[in-house]
Specification:
The chain is mainly alpha-helical. The chain is 53% helix and 5% strand. The chain contains nine helices and four strands; from the N terminus they run H-H-H-H-H-H-E-E-H-H-H-E-E.
């Protein structure tokens, strides 16, 4: 009899364990479905007005006429939301949509992947070496984005956005996708480790203190030379002003020294 009871107890434990595991699995699936549902609601409320309910685009007016999204890489979509470019802000036409937080952005990504099977994937960022990254950055990026990622003007008077403050995934997405007029850098140009190194360098550059004049790239010697240059310029300006004050107009159209002229 004790053996029978023990067998019954073991059987009940096995059945209970299986039921618990099944419930956890179903709960996980439900959580996934809930995220997709939330993402769909957010997309319909904040994106479909311009891009269409089926990503067909062509909705809205003027600047709000959204392009189609059916062939966009999911990393491109994530990049526009992660950097705050989307949802669009257009107060001048009476539309203002608050930017998405991380949870909302991830839900929209889940909805787009589950419903429309957009290509690509959200990249990950690994550990990098800043010293190697600096060399790679100077060679591939600094010409447009500046030595410390502060942005500037590129060819064709295209404004280049700063990289300072962007999260690492956005940096990788932008490099791989090549948004707007920026060229895309695939793994034949920058492999995964090299891109991680660049991200590590940018993180270090972003944390570096700015100089007294707000220029991040200046080292101590550069700051000293800059200060000396400013001092010399100020001295020249003061000399010119002092010389100009020694002269005053005697009558319209003519100038004479302010001191009386006494012939010898």
């Amino acid at each position: 009899m004790p053996r029978v009871l023990a067998l019954v107890a073991v059987a009940l434990l096995v059945v209970g364990w299986g039921a618990m595991a099944g419930a956890q699995e179903r709960a996980g699936r439900d959580d996934g479905r809930d995220e997709v549902v939330r993402g769909g609601e957010l997309f319909q409320a904040q994106c479909a007005t311009c891009h269409g309910t089926r990503l067909e685009g062509g909705h809205g007016e003027g600047d709000l006429d959204g392009p189609p999204m059916t062939d966009l890489d999911i990393a491109y979509v994530d990049l526009t939301m992660r950097t705050g470019r989307m949802p669009v802000l257009a107060p001048e036409v009476g539309v203002r949509i608050d930017q998405l937080d991380d949870e909302q952005r991830e839900a929209i990504n889940a909805y787009l992947l589950a419903t429309f099977d957009l290509p690509g994937e959200i990249p990950t960022v690994g550990a990098g070496e800043a010293a190697r990254g600096q060399e790679l950055y100077v060679r591939n990026c600094a010409a447009c984005h500046g030595a410390a990622g502060d942005g500037g003007i590129a060819g064709g008077d295209n404004a280049v956005p700063p990289l300072a403050g962007l999260d690492p995934i956005a940096l990788v997405e932008g490099t791989r996708i090549g948004p707007f007029t920026m060229p895309a850098f695939d793994e034949s140009v920058l492999d995964v480790q090299q891109l991680d190194d660049i991200v590590a360098y940018l993180a270090l550059a972003d944390a570096a203190p700015r100089s007294a004049v707000g220029v991040r790239e200046l080292d101590q010697v550069g700051e000293a030379l800059f200060a000396i240059g400013l001092a010399l310029l100020a001295a020249v300006v003061l000399w010119v002003v002092s010389r100009a004050r020694r002269w005053s107009p005697a009558e319209p159209g003519s100038f004479a020294r302010s001191e009386p002229f006494e012939p010898r």
